[in-house]
Amino acid sequence: MTWELAANVVTGGLLIGLVYALMALGLSVIFGVTRIVNFAHGEMTVLAMFAAVILFRQFGLDPILMSPIVAAGLFALGYGLQRYLVAPFVTRPEHEQFILLLAVAFALTNGMLIVFGPEAQGILTDYSFDSYEIGPLIVDKTKAIAGLISLVVAALLLGFFRYSATGRAIRACADNLIGAGVVGLNVPYLYALTFAIGAATVGVAGCLLSIIMDATPVLGPELTLLAFIIVIVGGLGSMTGALLGGVLIGVSEALAGLLFTPSLKSMLSFGLLILVLVVRPQGLFGKSGAR
Amino acid sequence: MLSVRDLTLFYGDAQALDGVGFDIGEGEIVAIVGANGAGKTSLIRAVAGMERPAGGTIRFRGADIAGWPPHRICNTGIGQVAEGRQIFPSLSVMENLQMGAMLPRARKRFRQSLDEVIALFPRLEERRDQAAGTLSGGEQQMLAIGRCLMGRPELILFDEPSLGLAPTIVADVFRIIRRLHEGGMSIVLVEQNVSASLRLSSRAYVLENGRVVAEGASAELANDPRIRQAYLGL
């Protein structure tokens, strides 16, 4: 094995890791604010992937250019889901929330099986096999675009929460829910908005994934699990943690394929998860003592 | 200004308020006193919309606001300085103040409110970029009051503002409440520090087991042998 090969594999893993990170960021945002764990996260990602596939196959529209449209659709779905389905469960015990979101996940997966069928469906754009040569590195164009867009969207998201008044209000809700009521923040609206933003993030991530991997309904649970591993490794509720966790998982999956066999890639991510849980249970960027 | 009638509130089967009524006029400062568990905080929370009353009316400037969500009630001009301060610990002091001004009624006058609050609490300006959770208890109470003022309230509900503060800071807090009152603010003061709140207020209501058992001018209540025995330990 040459070091060029290793560098190429690591770069590819890093770029896919950024897309994973973006997906996990959605989960992290929703949990960090509403304390609801979105068990339908991977399923929503697959829904976005299929949306991209349909737009491409039926209308010839590029998945990257369509990502704002798909994100808008997922935004509306997320808003409605929180407002009308999840909101009454916010104050209920966690296992009841768990069952509700799990039911949404099953409904989405099986709905997609009925509509799209079980076969894997991919997208072949005219740049699907292009690549960039940067010194010794050969980078797939799809992965490079997907990774960079993920980074940009993640930065926008961080900026929104840091600098916009609405973003701050959402952080305030996460920080002290009673305080949010005291100052008269519209908490039900902000919760729905948070869910919508998390879902829109997943909408973009799904579009980006659709040019890297094939969409199939059974991918949903796998992606949900992946998003979980990432946010737990990075630290629940921490946005930078989710970013770093995603990159770590992406690189470790790629290295597993290089050093052992691609089918062992999950073992390595789970190994990383166990290692983090043993050494630093709150996650790399998590606050200790957090719920 | 605010007129509460027959207010009842339940937590599950437990009755917290049982037909409570009280009034507060423009610019008045009214104390609500009583032992722990008498229903003082429940009363504040019901008026602020954070608990849904089972019955009764809460009229503020003519509109019955009973059962409205808290953000709507805040926007009518009822501010709240809650028990335990309820600041946003991981947000900076400035961000906390901005959150107080998110109400539609307050957004446009943000700069003016900020100048007023900083004139009242220069300490907050010194600590503007510091995480609010790192402030001392007294500073956090100043921040809680400042944040409330950012919403441009016309009536402020103070819930145990002296709780957990050092005696010198408590004196500061009461001085500020007096100053706000002198500036024309209407104030409802809920306190377990009965003697101080009777000195500060013009009228007072005594709550026991979710009912008003006595009301009147604060000076008279302070001389009432029953009140002196039950609440002032005299």
UniProtKB/TrEMBL annotation, chain A:
<dbReference type="GO" id="GO:0006865">
    <property type="term" value="P:amino acid transport"/>
</dbReference>
<feature type="transmembrane region" description="Helical">
    <location>
        <begin position="189"/>
        <end position="213"/>
    </location>
</feature>
<dbReference type="Pfam" id="PF02653">
    <property type="entry name" value="BPD_transp_2"/>
</dbReference>
<keyword id="KW-1003">Cell membrane</keyword>
<keyword id="KW-1133">Transmembrane helix</keyword>
<keyword id="KW-0812">Transmembrane</keyword>
<feature type="transmembrane region" description="Helical">
    <location>
        <begin position="258"/>
        <end position="279"/>
    </location>
</feature>
<dbReference type="GO" id="GO:0022857">
    <property type="term" value="F:transmembrane transporter activity"/>
</dbReference>
<keyword id="KW-0472">Membrane</keyword>
<comment type="similarity">
    <text>Belongs to the binding-protein-dependent transport system permease family. LivHM subfamily.</text>
</comment>
<dbReference type="GO" id="GO:0005886">
    <property type="term" value="C:plasma membrane"/>
</dbReference>
<protein>
    <submittedName>
        <fullName>High-affinity branched-chain amino acid transport system permease protein LivH</fullName>
    </submittedName>
</protein>
<keyword id="KW-0813">Transport</keyword>
<dbReference type="InterPro" id="IPR052157">
    <property type="entry name" value="BCAA_transport_permease"/>
</dbReference>
<feature type="transmembrane region" description="Helical">
    <location>
        <begin position="40"/>
        <end position="59"/>
    </location>
</feature>
<keyword id="KW-0029">Amino-acid transport</keyword>
<feature type="transmembrane region" description="Helical">
    <location>
        <begin position="98"/>
        <end position="117"/>
    </location>
</feature>
<feature type="transmembrane region" description="Helical">
    <location>
        <begin position="144"/>
        <end position="161"/>
    </location>
</feature>
<feature type="transmembrane region" description="Helical">
    <location>
        <begin position="225"/>
        <end position="251"/>
    </location>
</feature>
<dbReference type="InterPro" id="IPR001851">
    <property type="entry name" value="ABC_transp_permease"/>
</dbReference>
<feature type="transmembrane region" description="Helical">
    <location>
        <begin position="12"/>
        <end position="33"/>
    </location>
</feature>
<feature type="transmembrane region" description="Helical">
    <location>
        <begin position="65"/>
        <end position="86"/>
    </location>
</feature>
TrEMBL record, chain B:
<dbReference type="GO" id="GO:0015658">
    <property type="term" value="F:branched-chain amino acid transmembrane transporter activity"/>
</dbReference>
<dbReference type="InterPro" id="IPR017871">
    <property type="entry name" value="ABC_transporter-like_CS"/>
</dbReference>
<dbReference type="GO" id="GO:0005524">
    <property type="term" value="F:ATP binding"/>
</dbReference>
<dbReference type="InterPro" id="IPR052156">
    <property type="entry name" value="BCAA_Transport_ATP-bd_LivF"/>
</dbReference>
<dbReference type="InterPro" id="IPR003593">
    <property type="entry name" value="AAA+_ATPase"/>
</dbReference>
<comment type="similarity">
    <text>Belongs to the ABC transporter superfamily.</text>
</comment>
<dbReference type="InterPro" id="IPR003439">
    <property type="entry name" value="ABC_transporter-like_ATP-bd"/>
</dbReference>
<dbReference type="InterPro" id="IPR027417">
    <property type="entry name" value="P-loop_NTPase"/>
</dbReference>
<dbReference type="GO" id="GO:0015807">
    <property type="term" value="P:L-amino acid transport"/>
</dbReference>
<keyword id="KW-0067">ATP-binding</keyword>
<keyword id="KW-0547">Nucleotide-binding</keyword>
<feature type="domain" description="ABC transporter">
    <location>
        <begin position="2"/>
        <end position="234"/>
    </location>
</feature>
<protein>
    <submittedName>
        <fullName>High-affinity branched-chain amino acid transport ATP-binding protein LivF</fullName>
    </submittedName>
</protein>
<keyword id="KW-0813">Transport</keyword>
<keyword id="KW-0029">Amino-acid transport</keyword>
<dbReference type="Pfam" id="PF00005">
    <property type="entry name" value="ABC_tran"/>
</dbReference>
<dbReference type="GO" id="GO:0016887">
    <property type="term" value="F:ATP hydrolysis activity"/>
</dbReference>
